[in-house]
Amino acid sequence: SSNEHKLNFKKSKEACLSYIQDALLQKQWKRAAEFLTCYVESLEKDYSREHIGPSEMIWRIGTEILWHHSHSSMKEFSYFMEQMKTLGVKRYLKVCLEHVFHLLCNGQIDEAYQNLSLAESWRFGEQTAIQGKEMKLIQAYRGLLDYYSWSKQKNILLEHGEDGFSDLAVEQEMHGYFRKAAVNLKEIIKIPGVWDVFVKCYVDLLEFYGDHNEARQVLNEYAYNSRFPANPNAHVYLYQFLKRQGESKKSLISALKILHDIVPSHELMIDFNTMLQKSKKRKKRRLGLEVIFAALDYAGWKENAKAWSCLARQVKQIVTSEKHLDWIKQEWNSRKDWWPAFHFSRYLAKRNWQENKSLSYEKALVAGILLGKDCKYFKHVSQQGCKAQLKRFRMLKKFVNRHNPVYLRISG
Predict the structure, then answer these.
(1) For residue 78, what pLDDT is reported?
(2) Is residue 228 classed as helix, strand or coil in its secondary structure?
(3) Which of 207, 259, 313, 325 has its CA 20 to 30 A from that of 240?
(4) Backbone phi, then psi, for 208, in 5-degree steps?
(5) DSSP class of residue 229?
(6) What is the pLDDT of residues 40-70, one digit of tens each?
(7) What is residue 1's DSSP assignment?
């Protein structure tokens, strides 16, 4: 019967998709391609209307297979993409963007630019207005490639020095790329979203031509506008710009404070801690201790010698002056149950000593103050240092022994 035929067809189609999925998961690209061919042929008899249309299935699966298949070429991939563009008007610009990404990954810059230009001139009734966001992306990526061309011309002219800048034709060409890039990049970063690469390129253009006020405004908007999603990189770019402009420590600290709140493990926390430690304000020095303790809570910082040096220096200053021991105590109270195993085990003491003696020195000082002179980490490192007749380790041992009462006060 007709209903039975439809039911069997549906089952066979679902089974085919299941086989394709299995082949993709096992990275069997040839097998997946064979099943996809069967799937495409079977669709000629399929008149159902699913939420995700067959053309999108073919586009997504086919793209994945062609990208990984050992016998596929960029020529075949481009031919497939051109076919996909004609299958679904609603997805035309998305397919164009994906095609461009693959061209860029293969170093075909000119072909990518040509495809973007063609996509930008595409018009199809109401669909043009509906796909406004995709069109903005098309224009933005074209702006990015204009920036790339501008950057190449700029480097050529700078290498040639004054003689290079006397070539008006080349200079005018560079300015032409600047104007085209600036227009499209400026438009995309007005839309709330994460536009890191576009923002960086636009700011680079503005800075080169001395428009620092506009660059500052763009970065402030990107970092502080509540309509944009929280983005650590936005604050990194603002901080780097302020640093290039020679802004005050107050401005730099303000930018890094927000970055610390979002990503306490960011690599710039070393810079942040250093600035805070040098401050004359007690509140900022207290924050500096909090910042470096927080950074060392993360596994990626376990063997960061600079971070341990920052903590050791500040702990040593506090212990020597015997002022603000409560700062250390407050930070240590929430960590004393897990930091000893995380940072100060005997195994780590042996490994750190073998791999990086400077790191082991800084960690041993901190361990000795926080856990006392009987701490496994401190005992092993100080013993090895004394055996090796290294003066700094003998002084380390004396310092910790002399200030052992501090450990008792910190531990409560």
Answers:
(1) 85
(2) coil
(3) 313
(4) -60, -35
(5) P
(6) 777 655 555 554 456 777 888 888 888 888 7
(7) -
* Closest to 72 in 3D by CA, of 9, 35, 30: 30
- Count Cβ atoms below 10 Å from residue 143 Cβ, excluding itself: 25
For the chain, how far is it from start to end, CA to CA, in angstroms?
84
How far is residue 341's CA from residue 344's CA, in Å, rounded to a whole number? 6
Contact 50, 28 (CB under 8 A): no
User: Minimal CA–CA distance to 304: which of 363, 377, 384?
Assistant: 363
Long-range contacts of 131-137, Cβ-Cβ distance < 8 Å, separation of 24 or more: 131/90, 131/92, 131/93, 133/191, 134/93, 134/94, 134/97, 135/93, 136/187, 136/188, 136/191, 137/93, 137/97, 137/188
Pairwise CA distance, residues 328 & 319, whole Å:
9
- Torsion sign, CA atoms 16, 17, 20, 21: negative
Say which residue the tokens 């693959």 belong to.
102
User: Strand ranges (DSSP E) for 216-314?
Assistant: none
Tokens standing for residue 150:
């501008």
Distance CA 307, CA 305 (A): 5
Chain-centre distance for alpha carbon 72? 31
- Tokens in use for 344? 């100060």
Structure tokens that stand for 45 in this block: 């008899």
Task: Choose among 36, 125, 48: nearest CA to 84.
Answer: 36
Other Cβ atoms within 10 Å of 4 Cβ, number? 8
Distances (CA, A) of 317 to 130, 296, 321, 325, 382: 63, 19, 6, 10, 20
Structure tokens at 298: 């993360």
SS3 call for 39: helix
80-92 pLDDT tens trace: 888 888 776 678 8
For residue 243, what are the contacts with CB-CB under 8 A and spacing of at least 6?
252
pLDDT band at 403 (very low <50, low <70, confident <90, very high): confident
Query: 1 burial class (0-12, 13-18, 19+ CB within 10 angstroms)?
Result: exposed
Q: Measure Cα distances from 133 to 183, 190, 193, 239 in Å.
A: 16, 12, 12, 30
Ordered DSSP codes for 318-381? HHHHT--HHHHHHHHHTTTTTHHHHH--HHHHHHHHHH-HHHHHHHHHHHHHHH-TT-HHHHHH
- Tell me: pLDDT of 164 over 60: no
